[in-house]
Amino acid sequence: MRRDERDDPFGDIFDEIERMMGGPAGDSAGEGNTHIDAFDEGDRLRLVADLPGSDKEDLSLQCDGETLTLEAGEYRERVRLPARVDEHSAEATFNNGILEVTFEKVTDSADIDVE
After folding, report:
1. How far apart are CA 108 and CA 79, in angstroms?
2. pLDDT in tens, 47-104
3. What is this structure's pTM?
4. What angle do CA 42, 62, 26 make, to 5 degrees?
5. Which of 85, 97, 108, 112 has the largest CB neighbor count within 10 A?
6. Largest alpha-carbon pair distance within the chain?
């Protein structure tokens, strides 16, 4: 009996995961294939990245206050942050392939007292 493609309800999901991770269905080695959202929460900035198939032990994060560099195994991406942040305030969680990183925002200017 010939296998019917419609018999596999998860085929499209696995194809999409492979595409995002740069596997057989993808065209690059994992670079630029993840989805990262930034949320401005007033005095904080929150980034959420989908990293399916990544392990917590493989994650490496670096921030200089303007750019976040994210590495997960062979995947690497630099994300220009929409606001300047205090890189020392970073908090990160990783659960079920979802990375969340929050930073305290830094004000762009300071008041100067004139004497």
Report:
1. 19
2. 999 998 889 999 999 999 999 999 988 888 999 999 999 999 999 999 999 999 999 9
3. 0.65
4. 100
5. 85
6. 89
